[in-house]
Design goal:
Shape: elongated
Strand order of the largest sheet: 6-7-9-8
Structural class: alpha+beta
Order of helices and strands: HEHHEEEEHEEEEHHHH
Strand content: 15-25%
Number of domains: 2
Helix content: 25-40%
Number of helices: 8
Largest sheet: 4 strands, mixed
Amino acid sequence: MSTTTLKKHLKKGEVYRRSDLAKLSNVVDRHLDILEAEGALRKLSGGLYYAPKETAFGVAPPNEHKVLRSFLKDDRFLVTSPNSYNSLGVGTIQLYNTRTVYNHKCHGEYKLGNRKFFFHIKPHFPKKATEEFLLVDLVNNLDSLAEDKETVLQNVLKKARAMNVKKLRRSVMEYGSVKAKKLLLPLFSD
């Protein structure tokens, strides 16, 4: 198969693994080099490529979900950030330039394109970050935050008392660390 034929199979805005493209080429590495040189593909990391999509503002970055799905070869992950805690109204106001990816396969820090991700293997995490999950996750990660920990913790406890007890208890049991369980479960003993 020629580079031109391989290029016809590429869809702008899509993310590809080298192994996916190898099925369409008998000399995949040479074809990838040519397609990169032409600008038809951009390398995101080892074995991961993006077919750039032009917009009125230039080349659009690849869709985060597509990049992570291709990287992990799995749809089961949750992307969050310490910035999400700011929505809880418990005194966290810092802005962080980190993205955390809870998943079942990969642990460590990886740069995919221009973005850095911190992958954490977790046995359980929700499909979507709910308010209850974020509160539990905040307590799990309290020591890594830049805010005054005692003030945030006091606000977390106030917030927890005002939340749906059933949903919060379930989140604590499913996603809470030993520390989170120790701090939050006594709130439900009343």
